[in-house]
């Protein structure tokens, strides 16, 4: 397993609105402090992603989502930890840059050991959207991320998981499968 970077320096970077790229289940993800509007705007700009779509959060435990959800965070043992993102009711104060035009927030307790260890060490959930420009292929290595994003992103070294597709997205309230 790849060693974690200097966590104190990484916290400062995130608090200052910085963006990171880190390995996840299927590709590198772009992430930031989900409470930082400037950082989220940077991710949307780097990707060319519309604000209306919203963003996914990953965490190492369901409790890392508690301040963003309408109710207490619940464990979903049939899905988590794993590559399944759930759409759950967002708290009224949940930032609009996370939910986009929706009333639900996309959250996932990751099974990717390095991503989970990162969230645990930081003590928080992270934004997690594929590290790529919208419409282009997902980036799968740190070198690809450095080439694509340059100094705009702090790229963490590591290995992605074996999954070849993005996370499945399910709305457990309706049973709708939004992405397989």
Structure description:
With 180 residues, this protein is of the alpha/beta class. It has one domain: DHBP synthase (Alpha-Beta Complex), CATH 3.90.870.10. It contains five helices and ten strands. The strands form two sheets. Strands 6-3-5-4-9-10 form a six-stranded mixed beta sheet. A four-stranded mixed beta sheet has the order 7-2-1-8. Strand 9 and strand 10 form a beta hairpin. The radius of gyration is 15 Å and the shape is globular. 42% of the residues are buried. The model has no long low-confidence stretch (mean pLDDT 95).
Describe how the helices and strands are arranged:
Layout: H1 7-15, E1 20-23, E2 28-31, H2 37-47, E3 56-59, E4 84-89, H3 96-99, E5 104-109, H4 113-122, E6 126-127, E7 129-130, H5 142-149, E8 154-155, E9 168-171, E10 176-179
Parallel strand pairs: 1-8, 3-5, 4-9
Antiparallel strand pairs: 1-2, 2-7, 3-6, 4-5, 9-10
What is the first-to-last residue Cα distance? Answer: 28 Å
Tertiary shape: globular
Rg over C-alpha atoms, rounded to the nearest angstrom: 15 Å
Per DSSP E runs of 2 or more residues, the count of β-strands stands at 10
Mean pLDDT, nearest integer? 95
CATH topology (level 3) name: DHBP synthase
What is the C-level CATH assignment?
A: Alpha Beta
Number of domain units:
1
The H-and-E topology, N to C, reads as HEEHEEHEHEEHEEE
Assess the beta-strand content as a share of residues.
Answer: 15-25%
Spell out the CATH superfamily. Answer: DHBP synthase
Strand order, sheet with most strands: 6-3-5-4-9-10
- Largest beta-sheet details: 6 strands, mixed
Helix content: 10-25%
Q: Per CATH, which architecture?
A: Alpha-Beta Complex
Structural class comes to alpha/beta
Task: Count helical runs.
Answer: 5
Q: Low-confidence parts, pLDDT < 50 over ≥5 residues?
A: none
């Amino acid at each position: 397993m790849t060693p974690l970077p200097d966590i104190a320096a990484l916290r400062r970077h995130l608090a200052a609105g910085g963006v990171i790229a880190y390995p996840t289940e299927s590709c590198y993800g772009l992430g930031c402090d989900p409470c930082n509007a400037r950082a989220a705007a940077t991710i949307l700009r780097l990707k060319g992603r519309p604000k209306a779509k919203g963003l996914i959060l990953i965490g190492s435990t369901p409790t890392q989502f508690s301040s963003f959800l309408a109710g207490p965070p619940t464990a979903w043992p049939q899905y988590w930890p794993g590559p399944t993102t759930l759409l759950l009711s967002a708290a009224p104060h949940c930032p609009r840059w996370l939910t986009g035009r929706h009333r639900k927030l996309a959250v996932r307790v990751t099974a990717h050991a390095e991503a989970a260890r990162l969230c645990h060490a930081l003590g928080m959930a992270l934004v997690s959207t594929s590290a790529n420009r919208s419409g282009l292929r997902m980036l799968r290595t740190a070198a690809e991320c450095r080439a694509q994003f340059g100094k705009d992103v702090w790229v963490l070294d590591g290995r992605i998981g074996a999954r070849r597709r993005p996370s499945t997205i399910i709305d457990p309230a309706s049973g709708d499968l939004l992405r397989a």
